[in-house]
């Protein structure tokens, strides 16, 4: 699934909705992120102009918030926890298995835009360590076997959508 073309009409409608709002930047960015799956860098200038901000301020906010991204992500996003509780329970080996199985490194997206692999400092579910998220779902007490079954779910549904 390739990232969709930028829908400028949709983007302009979101920007218009928040034009001039004093505290509108984060809601606006979140709406663009939800609609397009990322915030196209080309959208920074019109967003800044609508909210009377500098483009660098908009860029800084996007870079600060983990939920916002300037790059298109895969259809499925895996976040492997590398925090202390997960680390002591084998989080690094979970990450190694994920890298090997998906064929990508942390911070990367597969060439077909099906998977993205990320690491996080703590998912806030230390009692489930080692933990990861598959899209919005928490998966804890991971083991190599459990990862295999999680990934098979995603790979079995590989043809669920046309490319
Ligand atoms: S350290 Fe992994 S969930 Fe907290």
TrEMBL record:
[2Fe-2S] cluster binds at residues 81, 86, 122, 126. Coiled coil: none annotated. The keyword Iron applies. CDD domains: TRX_Fd_NuoE. One of its GO terms (molecular function) is oxidoreductase activity. Binds 1 [2Fe-2S] cluster. It comes from the Bacteria. PANTHER family: BIFURCATING [FEFE] HYDROGENASE GAMMA SUBUNIT (PTHR43342:SF1), NADH-QUINONE OXIDOREDUCTASE, E SUBUNIT (PTHR43342). This is NADH-quinone oxidoreductase subunit E. It comes from Desulfoluna spongiiphila.
């Amino acid at each position: 699934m390739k990232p969709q073309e930028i829908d400028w009409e949709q983007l302009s409608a979101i920007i218009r909705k928040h034009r001039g709002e004093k505290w509108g930047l984060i809601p606006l960015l979140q709406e663009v992120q939800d609609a397009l799956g990322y915030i196209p860098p080309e959208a920074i200038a019109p967003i800044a102009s609508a909210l009377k901000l500098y483009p660098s301020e908009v860029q800084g906010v996007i870079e600060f918030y983990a939920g916002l991204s300037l790059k298109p992500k895969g259809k499925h996003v895996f976040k492997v926890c590398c925090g202390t509780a997960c680390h002591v329970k084998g989080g690094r080996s979970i990450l190694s298995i994920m890298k090997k199985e998906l064929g990508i490194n942390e911070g990367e997206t597969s060439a077909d835009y099906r998977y993205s692999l990320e690491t996080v400092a703590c998912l806030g579910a230390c009692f489930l360590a080692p933990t990861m998220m598959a899209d919005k779902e928490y998966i804890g007490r991971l083991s190599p076997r459990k990862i295999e079954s999680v990934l098979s779910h995603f790979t079995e549904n590989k043809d669920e959508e046309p490319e």
